[in-house]
Give the backbone structure.
Amino acid sequence: MKLDGAVVIVTGASSGIGAATARLASARGAKVVLAARRLDRIAELAGQLPNAFPVQTDLRDPDQIRRLVDSAVVRFGHVDVLVNNAGQGLHVPLEHVRLEDLRAVTELNFYAPLLAMQAVIPVMRKQGGGAIVNVSSMTSRMVLPGVGGYSATKSGLNMLSAVARRELAGDGIAVSTVYPSVTATEFHQSLAAGARVGGGWSGPPPHSAEKVAEAILALIESGDEETQLTQDWGGVPGRGSQADR
Ligand SMILES: NC(=O)c1ccc[n+]([C@@H]2O[C@H](COP(=O)([O-])OP(=O)(O)OC[C@H]3O[C@@H](n4cnc5c(N)ncnc54)[C@H](OP(=O)(O)O)[C@@H]3O)[C@@H](O)[C@H]2O)c1
């Protein structure tokens, strides 16, 4: 998939990894459709990028997801790439997870990517192919106390992504999964509940949003199955398990 001229929908484009992905894709010639709830942020970003437009979207609402994809098709005539990036953490021990919080992050981290894939698949199939990148988390590749609710939603997403990859291969639609580790965004300030495990971060420097965005764009271009962004602990024994706090 070439990014130059491609129509790319980025969810969660109002901050962090999503905003960085939109900027980078635009710099490589993509037309970007920016989705998030905070219209002021995505409108401002769209104003800085050529061929970009914002669609205020609450991804917990299935109707708004369909409207997002419809808007992209109406504006640009096709959708080449979907980056399912929007997500929220839930960082409390399982004993204290409140059902309403888990339901909310499940709707965002698990249902919304599925519904967005369902909305773009017919469009991509009709045009002969496309690329989908689902943004997961390294927490789902380990067993990490304190983030079980969040990790479970991302583990579910991993399976959706892997199965979709196989189901859609015959249609020329490449489905990939990216696994970020700790990344310097607003993520840890906007958890549905809880706080970063262990309080302050004493590990290696967080990755930049741009580093994750580069990995997302590389997956779009290659169609590879996945990329894991592991933290560099400099060989400190026993510290790797903290990679995604
Ligand atoms: N940062 C990390 O350490 C880290 C590590 C591993 C994985 N990840 C994953 O990376 C992805 C991006 O996170 P980030 O680090 O860039 O965090 P972030 O800066 O907090 O960005 C989260 C984005 O999700 C959007 N969002 C939240 N709820 C939404 C809703 N109901 N409808 C639409 N959009 C919604 C937010 O936009 P609005 O609030 O404007 O709606 C925002 O644009 C997430 O899936 C996260 O799980 C992050």
In short: Residues 7-242 form a domain with the Rossmann fold fold (CATH 3.40.50.720). The two ends are 33 Å apart (CA to CA). The CA atoms of residues 141 and 158 lie 10 Å apart.
